[in-house]
Design brief:
This protein folds into two domains: 107 residues, Thiol Ester Dehydrase, Chain A, CATH 3.10.129; 43 residues, no CATH class. Strands 1, 2, 3, 4, 5 and 6 form a six-stranded antiparallel beta sheet that branches. By secondary structure, the chain is an alpha+beta fold. The chain starts with 5 loop residues before the first strand and ends with a strand. The longest helix has 12 residues.
Length: 167
């Protein structure tokens, strides 16, 4: 087995680290959106009352209805979101020897502040890191995207990361 080692990235790729690649704003979250999401997620069971029963939820430590952690306020866009043009990044990757085959390298999320009816969520995605490793057959690039969701009070709702592997 070949020992994996880092390969320096080009200055062109390094310039993308920390760069914002998308920004979206949700519509205000409706109680019915939360209720429908919870029904779909917990079906055929009844979802926890915290997600749909305002009287019950008032008595909890949250003081009202909250959304399940996996709730996506961007799940029903009216317009198709604009995508970043990655052609410059892909051109740099090709210089480094990648043929642009893509694998999903996985991801993770931290859930910090619950979403509530009336919240407007802003999603900002940046390229958090780019690095290279030598695989057993070819060099592989790793592009780490970090997405931060905040509410209208500028409270962080969720931070998620996703790794894209190019080889």
């Amino acid at each position: 087995m070949t020992q994996s080692k880092d390969i320096p990235i080009t200055p062109g790729l390094k310039a993308y680290i920390g760069r914002e690649i998308s920004r979206y704003h949700s519509q205000p979250i409706a109680l019915s959106d939360i209720r429908k999401w919870a029904i779909a997620v917990y079906w055929p069971e009844t979802p926890p009352r915290l997600y749909w029963d305002a009287d019950y939820a008032k008595k909890t430590r949250f003081g009202g209805v909250i959304a399940p952690e996996d709730f996506n306020p961007f799940g029903w866009p009216v317009e198709k979101p604009k995508q970043m043009d990655f052609s410059d990044i892909y051109a740099e990757l090709k210089k480094m020897g990648n043929s642009l085959n893509v694998l999903n390298g996985g991801g993770g999320a931290q859930f910090l502040t619950p979403m509530r009816p009336g919240d407007v969520i802003t999603s900002v995605t940046i390229i958090d890191d780019i690095y290279y490793r030598q695989g057993t057959k070819w060099p592989m690039s790793f592009i780490i995207r970090k997405t931060t969701w905040t509410n209208q009070k500028d409270e962080t709702v969720r931070i998620s990361t996703n790794t894209q592997i190019n080889y």
